[in-house]
Amino acid sequence: MLQRKFEDNYRHKGLRKKLVEEIRRKGITSENVLKAIEEIPRHWFLDVAFLEFAYQDKPFPIGYQQTISQPYTVAFQTQLLDIQPMEKVLEIGTGSGYQACVLSKLGAKVFTIERQKKLYQQTKEFLQAAGFSDIRCFYGDGYKGLPAYAPFDKIIITAGAPEIPQALIEQLKPGGRLVVPIGKNSMQIMTLLIKNADGSLTKEEHGFFAFVPMLRNKANDDL
Ligand code: SAH
After folding, report:
1. Does domain 63-209 match CATH 3.90.1150.10?
2. CA angle 30–33–7, rounded 5-degree value
């Protein structure tokens, strides 16, 4: 169980400002996205012992063999999604819940799926406690999406997918965007898919990233 402390003092805020400047230098231009990162206490998503690591622009282990994504990567994927307030957004790979909170700060209605049961439970409870109770958490297999809540304006996959999951394309609205790192090995190509009015897809590629793999089926893990 993670030890957390819901405190956000001047030191934390100062470290966060520096982090925002760092990812701005690395090329993030969306002011809304930068503002969301500046407002969310990323140290709450890690154990209190790891405060020093929370504001480095690096991924970090969160237990259950998973990681909280690097802030630059979170900002990059979010920027590609081009979130507008009130949009319905589906995230695959809840993990620590950090990416879901960034989407929520931008005004999206967030639905997020995690395949590891304990991680799902832990993050769901944390999001409630941290004041992000609007985010709807689901335990399930992201390859299947959430047909009961479809269609979505935007879909984001935060694990490396060997191929484009077809069910998710079907759950995307016309005009909608899906951002997914695609690749079978340790590196993936960040891919933006835009669904056209006639159902066809426009594809853009945005460089290499490294994610943990998107795995099939939900796990009743006891890792
Ligand atoms: N978005 C997270 C980072 C997630 S790491 C954050 O902000 O912290 C990727 C996560 O995807 C892991 O928690 C992993 O368990 C989960 N995952 C992998 N395959 C999945 C699948 N098929 N369905 C749902 N979640 C999946």
Report:
1. no
2. 150
